[in-house]
Amino acid sequence: MFGLNKKDFSLLLIVAGLLLFAPFLLNPFPEGSAMAQFNGGYPDLMQRLVIFGIFAVGFNILFGLTGYLSFGHAAFLGVGSYAAIWMMKLLTMNVVPAIIMAVIFAGLFALVVGYISLRRSGIYFSILTLAFAQMSYALAYSVLTPITGGETGLQPKLADPRLLDGASDDGRIPQANLFGLDMGASYEMAVGPWLFTFNAGYYIAAAFMLLAFYIAIRIFRSPFGMMLRAIKSNQQRLNYTGLNARPYTLAAFVISGMYAGLAGGLLVAMDTQVGPERMFWTASGEVVLMTILGGAGTLIGPVLGAGVIKYMENIVSKINSTILHDWFAFLPDGIEDLLVTLIYPFVGKGWHLTLGIMFMLVVIFLPGGLVEGGQRIARLFGRGKKDEAAAETEAAKQQPPAE
Amino acid sequence: MDAIILQILNGLDKGSAYALIALGLTLIFGTLGVVNFAHGALFMIGAFCAVTFSRLLSLSYETVDPTKTDFLGNPAKINTPYVQDWFGMQTGSVIIDWAVPLSILFAIPVMLAVGVIMERGLIKHFYHRPHADQILVTFGLAIVLQEIIKFYYGANPIPTPAPAVFAGSFDFGTLMGFDPNTIIYPYWRLVYFAFAVAIIAGVFAFLQFTTFGMVVRAGMADRETVGLLGINIDKRFTIMFGIAAAVAGLAGVMYTPINSPNYHMGMDFLVLSFVVVVVGGMGSLPGAVLAGFVLGILESFASMAIVLETIPGLNQIIIYLVAIIILLTRPRGLMGRKGVMEE
């Protein structure tokens, strides 16, 4: 179906199902219960999960498949965001042109950066992309202020021309919409004590996610994807066979840049503002974390990683010491205080610490990321069955031999 | 002329910091072949060694002074640092005043220990993994170290002043026959520059003139052969990692009066010092030092008002611009050798 084999198609179906039922799946606890703070089913978080999933899937095409570690991918996200917001300011609040322009501009920028950076490989490539990203950040922050809004960033204003929309009648800044469907529109469904929110913006982002994921599967399975894998496993050997790897790596770079641009455009569509901090190099580091954490080179891994990190960022970071004390209130006072003291550095404002430790553990013990972890557990329980899913990652994540 | 001299001077202290961090990075890269993204975190830990030490020195106890009262009429409390009790009033306050330079004594063993533990505990397992894995795991370590510091010291910068003796500025103008006040330069920055030069000279002398350094240099050239000669090269490399960590840490200690330490200063310097290393040529120690100073000075020239009027924002991007140009025209960097990090 859709040019996919049975296994890939079922993977696509699973992703589609997860996306469709995310408002239920992420809201397992009744409203008002003690566990309700672990509910991730509110629109803002779900949109972020999906958008950064797209970003990570794109990054994975470059890093997981081709083996080039870029430390500057947030630059493309930023360029996409700026392009999108300018479309909203100049043309219309409809998100379609904004997203299209985001993808195009990010792709063009990636073409320029990739053309230069891909002359080198390995650590030099990482540093070059880092240098480009930091440069774009500095430019967006200071020099290009007329275009980027500098430190304060950009958001739609009443005085913007918005050629297609015309002046807004009620004097309010119009909301981003899709042919009249407001991105912020939500339908809330109360089932007993549960409250599920279905948000238009989320489902639009989810549709793009599904499309992005489908394209990623096609790339992974195509001869082009095979070539990228060959580049990762041994570029020298490829050169000896008389093949020029540059066009392939450049294509991979541009594609992943376009994914980043799409994510940037969607971010603007959901929340109509941009700031230069979106391009800072730690933002590029974040997508690296997502991809590695979930499993570089696997299809579903980056989505998983993005989900885990964004979930932690939004949920774990909200746990403060009062909540911890509530949890352990049933224990004797001394033990309660001890437990809270022990756990407190890892949650709330310290959630980055948990993330860093988790990431290090994954890099050290689980190079295939959470996906490999899941497979190991699955193999442990179902030893008799031949693990087909393993074959996919095995083929994808062949590391180049150590020097 | 005076403007040029002023900019060169201005560039020196930033260049010194770049050069010291890049030197450590190159030492680690040259000996162990590991790309250490946690090196900026080591710089930051050094800076927080200074913070910790100056806090330790000013630990004090409270006594009630019956002769004085505060504005509410309660008896006033006075804090007496323990140091003043032990060394006497006068000496005690001098010691507290000199906390930053004195923290070098505290930072050296701490940084050596941190470096050795890091190498034995983590880096050692990554010798034979791809460079990407090394970057990733040290990047993770940098996040962890940064968060630990943030947890214990908070997110705000902590001012850590230099000794009062170095408070003023030195007037180069009168020394060189210009008008007074045309070329003035804070004393502490001079100290920092002199310190950086001393450390760099020390590291080079250590590598050049001691037997240990000779073995390490041999090991950098051909690790296997040195090992076959019956020398425990791993142990020496571990010590070199400790030394590299100490160099970064000391750079951090002495940098505290220039910029108050905060938890993300490591990451801020890390990116730049990687660029410095690449511009200098990976694995080349003189290259790292040269590139550090050159880029520091270039940055300060780019921040001149007259330059910024012509090309706004140049000061923020000059280093990256230079790095991109150098990497594309001279792929090995300024002083890089053949065959280092070339796939």
From TrEMBL, chain A:
Main location class: membrane
Membrane topology: Multi-pass membrane protein
This protein's UniProt keywords: Cell membrane, Membrane, Transmembrane, Transmembrane helix
UniProt cross-references to InterPro entries, sorted A to Z: ABC_transp_permease (IPR001851), LivM-like (IPR043428)
One GO MF term: branched-chain amino acid transmembrane transporter activity
Transmembrane portions of the chain: 46-63, 94-116, 123-144, 200-220, 247-267, 287-306, 353-371
One Pfam family, short name: BPD_transp_2
Listed GO CC annotations: plasma membrane
Keyword Lyase carried by entry: no
Compartments where found: Cell membrane
Entry keyword annotation includes Ligase: no
PANTHER family the UniProt entry points to: ABC TRANSPORTER ATP-BINDING PROTEIN (PTHR30482:SF17), HIGH-AFFINITY BRANCHED-CHAIN AMINO ACID TRANSPORT SYSTEM PERMEASE (PTHR30482)
Name of this chain's protein: Amino acid/amide ABC transporter membrane protein 2 (HAAT family)
Organism the protein comes from: Litoreibacter ponti
From TrEMBL, chain B:
Top-level taxon: Bacteria
GO CC aspect terms: plasma membrane
Location relative to the cell: Cell membrane
One Pfam family of this chain: BPD_transp_2
Keywords: Amino-acid transport, Cell membrane, Membrane, Transmembrane, Transmembrane helix, Transport
Chief location: membrane
Membrane topology: Multi-pass membrane protein
Keyword Membrane: yes
Gene Ontology BP term (one): amino acid transport
TM region positions: 16-35, 42-61, 98-123, 190-216, 236-257, 269-298, 304-328
InterPro entries: ABC_transp_permease, BCAA_transport_permease
Any GO molecular function: transmembrane transporter activity
Family to which the UniProt record says this protein belongs: Belongs to the binding-protein-dependent transport system permease family. LivHM subfamily.
The name this protein goes by in its record: Amino acid/amide ABC transporter membrane protein 1 (HAAT family)
